[in-house]
Amino acid sequence: MSELVLYSNPQSRGRIATWMLEEIGQPYEVVWLGFGAPMRTPEYLAINPMGKVPALVHGNAIVTETPALCAYLADAFPEAGLLPTSAQAKARYFRWLFFTAGPLEMATTAKAFCWEVPEGKTGMAGFGHYARTLDAIEKALSQGPYVCGDQFTAADVYLGSALAWGMMFGSVEKRPGFEDYVARLQSRPAAIRANQINNDRLKVG
Fold this sequence. Notes:
Helix content: 40-55%
Strand order of the largest sheet: 2-1-3-4
Strand content: 5-15%
Largest sheet: 4 strands, mixed
Radius of gyration: 17 Å
CATH topology of the largest domain: Glutathione S-transferase Yfyf (Class Pi), Chain A, domain 2
Number of helices: 8
């Protein structure tokens, strides 16, 4: 068995994890799990008590939550060049990785479920305001081809996936800057391989 084992489903955020694994270029194994009962077995709940995917086992280490998984792999395999080294770039890296996991995730969830923040209460919500959340990302992406500037990082894997997914399902409005950014990322060989891996699994069922 490979030292890196990913538990995933091709219709889940495990697709992001697959892309990240393809980017680091290390051998790994995928254990495909169906939704429902297969994710609620005692064996899998010992790995992820939430009963969801993705989850990564790396030797004796277990990582769940997609942004944590991306950050972990970038740190564990620095030779892949997915973790910035300068203080300024690293600050942007952590800022936008956590912004995607926090404000953007909440903003798109609210959009999908038609939740409205009451008038005058935006300060109490983590994302504050849907449009301002997207504006902040749009401004960040205008400063370089990637969210950290000239270097592609694990933050792009996560943010790019979130924007692509959101635009596909309507929880993120399509903006030229978002579409250009996503297209640039999806043309990467690792992203193409990851999509093929997951799409091939969908055909199997």
